[in-house]
Amino acid sequence: MLNSSQPNVALNTPSMSTLPRTIARETLSLFPQQIQKILLVTDTWQETNGLTTTLKYTLAIGRQWGYAFAVLHPGMFACLRNPWYRQYAHALPNPWRLRRLLRHLRPDAVHIATEGPLGVTMRQECRKRAWRFTTSFHTRWDEHGKHLIALPSALVWRWLRWFHSRATRVLTPTSSVATLLRQHGFMPPLSLWERGIDMQLFHPRPHTHHGVQRPILLSVGRISREKNLPAFLNLNLPGTKYIVGDGPMLAEFQRTYGADIAAGRVVLFGERKGQALAELYAEADVFVFPSTTDTFGNVILEALASGVPVAAYPVSFMQRLPLLLFLPSEDSQSTRVPSGAWSENN
């Protein structure tokens, strides 16, 4: 074990769940043998989202290869509810409690996954201790700020540059996100942290929803303003729209699309996990991803693994993925879908 007062190497590993077993072994062999305990710091942990899914997959696979992980998350501190997303609680980190936890955890490497209160507090603590640390970029806060409180993008990018400026490396989900960060003046080295999903859970299955008008058009994710769901729900398409997820706009959607829900054209399932979620993926004929602000969509990989093609806007990271049907731009007058595209044989 290294001296606990100064982790020697910052975390710089890809998500092991994206790698075949033999490649994962080769990848892990590149890292110093001294690294045994990795501290992950995140401002979201109990919630279901792309980041927590990625972190939990990484922990599960990393532990198989002999790494020990500790997770610093909001549940370990007093919290304040997010006024826009009541499902989210933000930590109010106590620096003295944090220091006691660090004395007990004694990590060899530190990775800060989020730019929230806990991430900021840990960043400052690492700076005080002269600890090296890595960070990762998961969320377009410039877009979220614009959607929620009309926050100027330039101000958000200034904050993000400051937060990540002292990291030894910033991990990004795609090369297009790395390009975006360079365009906004990020100076630390950037590396890809690729995504993976559980293919034992997400795979093609026989259809069982025989009484539903097809095609079934599925969307999975948080029901919130930045996800751009009305762009999908307002499309005049045959079939049935399945919406899976929870979020601050759920009640509003229930009112707005009440007639479609009553007629069975739209079905709101709420949040689903595990087997229940995997079965809904496999039931779909097309997966629809209307967001234009995500840095990545784990749900896209889950849909593709389930044998379902994906319809999405042609934003940068989407264009590298297979089996996509590009949605029209939001100012288009038609869906540009061939007339026979939704036939039972297609």
Query: Major sheet, described briefly?
Result: 6 strands, parallel
Beta-strand percentage range:
15-25%
Please give the CATH architecture of the largest domain: 3-Layer(aba) Sandwich
Coarse shape: globular
Task: Supply Rg.
Answer: 21 Å
- Share in helix: 25-40%
Number of strands: 14
Alpha-beta classification: alpha/beta
Element order: H for helix, E for strand = HEHEEEHEHEHHEHEEHEHHEHEHEE
CATH topology of the largest domain: Rossmann fold
SSE layout and pairing:
Layout: H1 21-29, E1 37-41, H2 50-64, E2 68-72, E3 79-81, E4 89-91, H3 95-105, E5 109-112, H4 117-129, E6 134-136, H5 141-149, H6 153-164, E7 170-172, H7 175-183, E8 190-192, E9 216-220, H8 230-233, E10 240-244, H9 250-256, H10 258-262, E11 266-270, H11 274-283, E12 286-289, H12 298-305, E13 310-312, E14 324-326
Parallel strand pairs: 1-2, 1-5, 5-6, 6-7, 7-8, 9-10, 9-12, 10-11, 12-13, 13-14
Antiparallel strand pairs: 3-4
Helix pairs in contact: 5-6
Keyword list:
single chain; 6-stranded parallel beta sheet; alpha/beta; Rossmann fold; 12 helices; 2 domains; disordered N terminus; 346 residues
Account of the 3D structure:
The chain has helices spanning 21-29, 50-64, 95-105, 117-129, 141-149, 153-164, 175-183, 230-233, 250-256, 258-262, 274-283, 298-305, and strands at residues 37-41, 68-72, 79-81, 89-91, 109-112, 134-136, 170-172, 190-192, 216-220, 240-244, 266-270, 286-289, 310-312, 324-326. Residues 1-31 and 330-346 have low confidence and may be disordered. It is globular, with a radius of gyration of 21 Å. Strand 1 (37-41), helix 2 (50-64) and strand 2 (68-72) form a beta-alpha-beta unit. By secondary structure, the protein is of the alpha/beta class. The chain folds into two domains: 16-192, Rossmann fold (3-Layer(aba) Sandwich); 216-326, Glycogen Phosphorylase B (Rossmann fold), CATH 3.40.50. The protein has a six-stranded parallel β-sheet, with helices on both faces. Helix 5 (141-149) runs antiparallel to helix 6 (153-164). The chain is built from twelve helices and 14 strands. The longest helix has 15 residues, at 50-64.
